[in-house]
Each structure stands twice: as structure tokens, then as C-alpha cells.
Amino acid sequence: MSVILRRERGDLLHRQLFLALREQIRRGAYREGDPIPTEDQLCQSFGVSRITVRRAVADLVEEGWLEKRLGRGTFVKQTAAKPQNRTGSTFTESLAKRSKQTKVTVLEVSKCSPPPLVAAAMGLAEDAQVMYASRLRSISGVPLLFVDSWVMPEYAGTIKNDTLERRSITEMLLSEGVRFRYVTEEISAVAAAPHVAASLHVEVGSPLLCVARLVSKDVGKTVMYLMAYMTSERSRVVFSHEEQDLDRMYEAKLIHDIDGYGPDQG
Length: 266
What we know:
Helix 2 (39-46) packs across helix 3 (50-62). The protein is built from seven helices and eight strands, in the order αααββαβαββαβαββ. By secondary structure, the chain is an alpha+beta fold. It starts with 12 loop residues before the first helix and ends in a 36-residue tail after the last strand.
């Protein structure tokens, strides 16, 4: 398959090639144990130099997707991208497991006015004061999740600053008897803002997944709004549904925002 990488993009060519090859491995174009094309073939297919190919392949080897075999070539590693066994768990069990798996660095805790977008989602005036917390979750020093949270002022006393590194805000609220009746989540692709990019060790403007969550105890009674940012290179979002819940999946909506796009703009 011939793919010409885009040189006007902000991403470096070797990074684009890395992502393209990794996606082909994930999709099964190259299966475990299969050899990948030679350097010459990759140069021709992607329109890049040998240096670019070698850098991309080296990164794939370093991250465990490929392995070099002396005198034979480069092969898809046998253990690459194997799906992990997953078992069902409750919401609170999932929170506890995530808290134990990741190390939390508290970046900021303060009272402030939320950004206009957040204020509108929470049903607040733009000059309203809420409790704000910014945290970074990582494993073995690798940053995975940058989380901004805004909590309604009446619940601020529930949040213990000295325990934010050990327990999530959601866990604290639940332990104090706050019940979540409605939770709305939205997943979108965004460009990394400078402060998020610095924490996740990516370039400013890099594509990120953003999970925005609005938590309410009743209609019109917001408890918290959070935005979690992650890079698809290190994290995935997985949904599991039990049989009895499948008939409710229609409640999820796919929304297209096309204002400002004419018929000739793709």
C-alpha cells in the first residue's frame, strides 16, 4: 500500500510513519511473527528517506511492536498489542483499581471561576466560584491522564487536599454520601493546549482524546464537571455492556458540528 506522508503537518515524518505502521499492525495487515517490508520498500511506499524509516522502526522496536532478528530482518513481535483479559467490575471497583494502578501528581487546587464552556455546562454564571483541581496520572513515570475538575462550592468541604494523591474526587464524594443520579460523558478529539502538552510530554497542538464528564445528583443539580485528556498512543477508552443494558444503548448520541463548513469544504 502506497501512502505519501504529509509534509505540511506539524508531526515529524518519522512520527507519522511510526503511527502508520503501528496502525497497520493493530489492524492485522502485519500479523504477529510476520516480517515487515524492507527499508527500500518502506521508502518507496511512504515516500520517505532511509533515515526516516530507521527512526520509525527503531521507535516501534523500543515500544515492543517489532523485533529485529539478526540476519533475517524485522518482524512483528509475538506479544505486540495482545488484548488484555477484562472482567466486569462495578463503577466504584473500577475507580479503586485505577487509583491503585496510577500515581497521582496534584498540580493545582484552588477556588476560581470556571471557563465559559465549563460554566455553561454546570449551569453557572461565568463569575461563579467553584473548587478547581488539576492532576496528572502516570505509571512508572509515564504520564497518561491529565485531569481538570470543577466541583460545586457546596461540595468543596468534601474534597480533602491531603488525600487527592491517594483518592479520586469521585471516590471522596461517594464516600461522603453524595449520590450520582445522572452522568453524561462526551468523547472528542482536541488539540493539546500548552499546559496539557507540557504535562503529557507531547507537542503543543498534538491530537488528544478528551473525555468530558458532567455529574449530577438530580436534574439541574450539578455536582462536578471534569475533563480528562489522554494521547491515543498510550491510552484507550473501552466500553463494556451487559446483556440487559444493550437495549438502552440508543441513549448514546453521535453529534456532528458542521456549522461553518460549506459543501465544498469536505
